[in-house]
Amino acid sequence: MKELFQHAAITDGITVRVSVNFLPEQSRPEAGKWFWVYHIRIENGSHERVQLMTRHWRITDGAGLVSHVDGDGVVGEQPVLMPGQSHDYVSGCPLDTPHGSMEGFYTFRGEDGSPLEVRIPYFPLAAPATAD
Questions:
Q1: Is the CB of residue 115 less than 8 Å from the CB of residue 12?
Q2: What rounded mean pLDDT belongs to the chain?
């Protein structure tokens, strides 16, 4: 099955694509817990080797509460991408509300050691309405 990436951003030749899905089997609305999984593909369309060093997420819940999450790499990796290469990973986000959003940036290191901030596109987190 071909992945449908719903959101994308390009910074200096590096494209970040995001596909997000609500996971009802991991959610417990009766307990105020909702969970999404997101698939990210990072494509190096630049002409130089880059390494993903850190990530910064801005997660906003449906009540407007903002959380910032910073860390090294993605899912325990700091991938090196040669020109034309891509890197995929999957992670998840729990919220205490049925709606919210995520956005942020990665910091890459270029061949000359200089940092490059690459935008992660804004994407909504929305649980489907449940009919009783």
A1: no
A2: 94
Domains of the chain with bracketed CATH: 7-122 (2.60.40.1470)
Spatial separation of the C-alpha atoms in residues 120 and 34, rounded to whole Å:
22
Rounded distance between C-alpha atoms, residue 53 and residue 61, angstroms = 26
Report the amino acid identity of residue 101: S
Give, rounded to a whole angstrom, the gap between the first and last alpha carbons of the chain.
31
For residue range 32-91, list pLDDT tens digits in order.
Answer: 999 999 999 999 999 999 999 999 999 999 999 999 999 999 999 999 999 999 999 999
Instruction: Please state, in angstroms and rounded to a whole number, the distance separating the CA atoms of residues 96 and 12.
Output: 35
Amino acid, single-letter form, for residue 15:
T
